[in-house]
Known about the structure:
The chain is built from 16 helices and 14 strands. With 416 residues, the protein is an alpha/beta fold. α2 (81-95) crosses α4 (143-156) and α12 crosses α14.
Amino acid sequence: MSVVLVVNSGSSSFKYQLLDMQHEQVLASGLVERIGDPSTGSGTGGTATHTVKAAALAAPDAPAPAVTDATYTIERVIPDHTAGFAVMLEAFAAHGPSLDAHAPVAVGHRVVHGGARFFAPTVVTPLVEINIDELSVLAPLHNPANLAGIVAAKKAFPDVPHVAVFDTAFHQSLAPEAYTYAIDREVAEAHRIRRYGFHGTSHKFVSEAAAAFVGRPLGELKQIVFHLGNGASVTAIEGGRSVDTSMGLTPLEGLVMGTRSGDLDPAVLFQLARRADMSIADLDTLLNKRSGLKGLAGVSDMRDIGERRDAGDPAAQLAFDVYIHRLRAYAGAYLAQLDGVDVISFTAGVGENSIRVREEAMATLGFAGVEIDPERNARRERGIRRISTDASRVIVLVVPTDEELEIARQTLSVAT
């Protein structure tokens, strides 16, 4: 059995999955949160939630157990990521699966920003750690936390390779005309100002899954993938390679998101600085936390937007209309960049679950050969599925993303 542990580390939490890669099954998963926070009402600090999946409770060839999973919670002070990994190991020892029987052959780590240096999964060395730290200037909220997880995980698993999988790596295939901003070249080069793109792990997974589902070689397909969650991005993919993407230097550019503005005239910032006396920190908070759906309607969840629209809330209606307008604008742009498209896929929380968003986003693309089947689109089924008609020249899919599985696949490809 080839087992990989996947870690997604934040500043005060980390998620993990233990995967059996022979069958691509999750054996266990968990979340350790409130790291470094001793001040809760109960006097405890962090919380670790550990879920043992059914696949870990039975032999590989045995019938599936009646209980699909079992969840355990631990509460205690967790001062740092190293202590968090100790709690994770305790959960494995107490509740399974046994890491003696399911020993990881490698640990894969999600790292948000690889800059222009990392374009593939990379075995972590001291030099790679230095580079991840140095690239924190491009992702100050993410890379330091990702690195803290790597350092702690290496202490917990010192004898196996650790692999960094970068959100930006998939977009390193962008051509200069796609990643270059039209500002002073020397300034841009000095400060590494360019489009990097994000959600690359998801876009790669979804585009490959879509190709397998439609039964055509990845290299032959022109695809558009909409990753629509609280953060949202869209990527044009030709022959399995990213050729354009909506996020840029940071995850702020592009589509309207839950709390982020997406595309904005840069002069808005000048105006607010001059007229509203807003500082750089104020503007950062405005665009990242008080904009998008939340800024327009007061709520960031598309389900809440839908409920308020149905109740006749004009702010929610406007928020939805602005959201859809931006989706259509990018769809049209990427149709032009690709000179047509074979497959369009929707993924992530909104993309996988919002019938209305998919319907409205595709409503104006009949000229390009897109024809949505209302009944297929309205079905709430699990797994990858087609929502376009059989006659549609463009196949439109819903593809559940699995970034952890993609990280595990990439980890295994370089670690063994």
